[in-house]
Specification:
The chain is mainly alpha-helical. About 60% of the residues lie in helices and about 0% in strands. α2 crosses α7. The chain starts with a helix and ends with a helix.
């Protein structure tokens, strides 16, 4: 897992943890990824969603294949961080994982936020049923 150690390091430092009130730092734009950033920023303001991601810690720490889940968790943990290089790497991993489930999200073409949001649960269901992703 490419960014596993960065995510764990941030978790251990409690960067952007749910117990603190970090002032959010923007997500980097990877090139026409406004749809992705807008959707994620909305999701990450939903406390129950973030809590459920963090409850899955055992899965994303123990399953090297859980890259989609670990990428979501990594971005939640990095909410308060201004480490743009790390955020960009984790954001790219999340985009890559979603594009494995829907080729529409490959490359740097502009996409629709609603379509991306709709794809996230679909990808998560596939991952849950196969135990990979």
């Amino acid at each position: 897992m490419r960014f596993y150690h960065s995510i764990i390091h941030c978790a251990e430092l409690n960067m952007g943890g749910l117990t603190s009130s970090p002032s959010p730092c923007r997500l980097p734009n990877l090139g026409l990824t406004c749809y992705l950033n807008a959707t994620l920023q909305c999701l990450f303001h939903l406390q129950p969603f973030c809590t459920q991601l963090l409850v899955q810690e055992e899965v994303w720490r123990m399953e090297p294949e859980a890259l989609l889940l670990s990428s979501f968790v990594g971005l939640v943990l990095l909410r308060g961080s201004c480490e743009m290089d790390i955020k960009a790497a984790v954001l790219l991993e999340l985009k890559d994982q979603i594009s494995l489930h829907n080729q529409e999200f490959e490359g740097n073409s502009q996409n629709d936020a609603h379509e991306f949001l709709s794809e996230c649960p679909d990808a998560a269901r596939v991952i849950a049923s196969t135990g990979h992703g």
